[in-house]
Amino acid sequence: MELFQKILIANRGEIALRVARACRELGVRTVAVYSTADADSVVRRYADEAVCIGPPPPRRSYCNVAAIIEAAKMTEADAIHPGYGFLSEDPDFAEICAENGLVFIGSPPNVMASLGDKSMARTLMRQAGLPLLTGSADAARSAADVRDIADAVGYPVIIKAVAGGGGRGMTVVWSAAELSRAYTRTRAAARAVFGDDRIYVERFLERARHVEVQILCDAHGGGIHLGTRDCSVQRRHQKLVEEAPAPELDPDRVAEMCRDAVRGALAVGFTGLGTVEFLVDEDQAHYFIEINSRIQVEHPVTEMVTGCDLVHEQLYVASGTPLRLRQEDVVARGVAVECRVNTEDPERGFVPAPGLLERFTPPAGPFVRVDTHGFPGYRVSPHYDSLLAKVSVWAPSRAEALGRAERALAEFDIAGPGVVTTIPFIKKVLTDTEFRKGQYSTGLVERLVAD
Amino acid sequence: MRQGSGTDQRQHVLGCLHEHARRLADELPGRLGRIRVCSGDVIIEVEWAPIALAAAVPAQLEPAAALVSALEPAGAIDSRAIGSQDADSGNTVVVSAPLVGTFYHAPEPGAEPYVAVGKVIEAGATIGIIEAMKLLNPVTADTGGTVARICVENGEAVEFSQVLVEITPHH
User: Fold this and answer.
1) Which residues of A are catalytic?
2) B162 reaches A (C-beta below 8 A)
3) B10 Cα to chain A: minimum distance (Å)
4) What is the pTM of this model?
5) End of a domain among B69, B98, B124?
6) Which residues on A lie below 8 Å from B97 (Cβ)?
7) For residue B83, what pLDDT band results from cuts at 50, 70 and 90?
8) Edge-to-edge order in the sheet of strand B126-132
9) Do B89 and B40 share a structural domain?
10) What ipTM, to 2 d.p.?
């Protein structure tokens, strides 16, 4: 099976560079696309070709389907890698790629459409035999409907947008008194953000952990998992620190969760690289939340413990190659931790703090990997996500990995007018007693913010 | 960038450019190394002070380009656009591509091209068509004048903000 000749990378920032590097390693030519705000980007210079696709607002550049398709045609690319965010899980875009003879590096459009509808995804996974949190079977139809479900499930509950994702479009409701307001607000927000105001309700686990399973499926019905990641260190559902494997879990429970992930994915005809997300409660029972059909921000930790380049494998399966790894080939060794360095100010509610990077020296040394698009003199644009760098480290044990992460973050030298990063906050997380013990839950960040 | 024939207009242009340069120098963070303003063939050059570490190459080139583009009516940032401005001594305005696609000179194959070098056009006139996703999008000139140069071949693919046509405005 031939790999691609030339891939257009429909993204920006660190992930565009990450994908371009994988392409170069595999001898695939690359096309970078960029908005006028990213004219000085690293990936523009790194790629074999580059096309300016529009002005800074994403809907006119990185989400501009016509511009990206035209750029692919003009450069004679044969595939499009969407990265994460932007058009990465847009079934319409995937369909338009196919109509134009371009391979969309992701899951088939119909699969993405069913998984993107969170209510349908729940139904499909229930049919596949995966455990779900109790809640609405389908989208709730009215405020009264929501009240009936919440009463049956018991408070607290979480109201989620059917079209939601990326941690947006959900509200936790602690008592019946708050319910109708939360219902109205979540629906209005869902309509505004996703153009779809359908919502559903689930039981909310207060001390849950967010554990996800990396999966890889080929176009021939084969599927494997590459172990777990713990992403419980979140603020308002935005992840800050991730690690692989998820710590302090019973191995039998983990094996069951990983098997569930592969079974669920294959049941819906999933292909490509994906993540099956679960909540794990205090009794270590797991509940399906959602499936993402894209490369995840936190994929480096899985790469570090498995030694498997996920973007390479993603390109192979997208080209129709059968899985090159058997399940027994995947062996996780040691512990990897990723820290997200965002240009945000934790002191001011994590508001974006972009600016000119006058100084920018990432950490280095043994077992440290830094994925970043930053360089000295780079201006962090206010138009896009505030993720500036991912610092990932590996060590044989968790304690050593956390120590190494601290060491690496301490080396990171970033300064410039207006630039504030999450580094000091991440250091607080790494030294937190509960976190050190591996017994943390999704409530950790809110507690540290409150301290 | 407009430039008149009379001294008053030249003075006016210089005044504007100076004002732009001064304001941008105030607004742009980072240490500026040098600003040069010429009145003859309207030129602005900006150099940033070198940033301590060597990897800062693009930062020294791109902001200068951005500064020039800020003075162009079409807001072009394409390096080719800047090159052609220098060559033509700055007394033209450019029409740049508002979207990515294929540029056509005429409404259909065999038809009369919308513009030719030397043709006088009104503001708002169509100068060509960009086809993107099978949709034909007319491209219009914001400024009237004489067509000085057609920068893109018929049927050539263009990226966003690429310069299509240069026009010498009338005064």
Assistant:
1) 294
2) yes
3) 31
4) 0.83
5) B69
6) none
7) very low
8) B135-140, B126-132, B101-104, B156-158
9) no
10) 0.84
